[in-house]
């Protein structure tokens, strides 16, 4: 039955804070259907960080999930912002700046690629790479 479930889901959202909540609900449903529910906690944190960064562009955000194989998931977030993603260490008293460090800690791979109207930031999560 799993083979009949589409292995890709993509949607465009307006740049509003509820995107994180709405896209997490879609993520939970997909992971349940793809039999990858164990990835939800890590994937939802990664998704929230990527979406939070994309909202800053104040333009529509694309969110895509793809099932890579029986044990891994790719999360992609597209935005039209000009800023490039960079994992940097934040100072102890800063309220933000740690998101991509978190993504790097939870994902087995992450990165970004330019597209004509912005960029896509992605992260790959795997059941085999789950933190203990």
Automatic annotation (TrEMBL):
Keywords associated with the record: Kinase, Serine/threonine-protein kinase, Transferase
Record has Transferase as a keyword: yes
Gene3D superfamilies recorded: Histidine kinase-like ATPase, C-terminal domain
Domain spans labelled Histidine kinase/HSP90-like ATPase: 21-122
Superkingdom of origin organism: Bacteria
A Pfam entry, by short name: HATPase_c_2
PANTHER family documented for this protein: ANTI-SIGMA-F FACTOR RSBW (PTHR35526:SF3), ANTI-SIGMA-F FACTOR RSBW-RELATED (PTHR35526)
Protein name listed in UniProt: Histidine kinase/HSP90-like ATPase domain-containing protein
């Amino acid at each position: 039955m799993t083979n009949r479930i589409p292995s890709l889901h993509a949607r465009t959202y307006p740049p509003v804070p509820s995107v994180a909540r709405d896209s997490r609900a879609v993520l939970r449903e997909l992971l349940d259907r793809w039999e990858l529910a164990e990835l939800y906690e890590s994937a939802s944190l990664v998704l929230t960080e990527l979406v939070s960064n994309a909202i800053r562009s104040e333009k529509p955000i694309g969110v895509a999930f793809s099932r890579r194989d029986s044990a891994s998931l790719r999360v992609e977030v597209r935005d039209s912002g000009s800023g490039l993603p960079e994992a940097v260490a934040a100072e102890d008293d800063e309220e933000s700046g740690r998101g991509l460090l978190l993504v790097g800690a939870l994902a087995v791979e992450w990165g970004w690629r330019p597209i004509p109207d912005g960029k896509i930031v992605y992260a790959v999560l795997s059941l085999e790479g789950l933190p203990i």
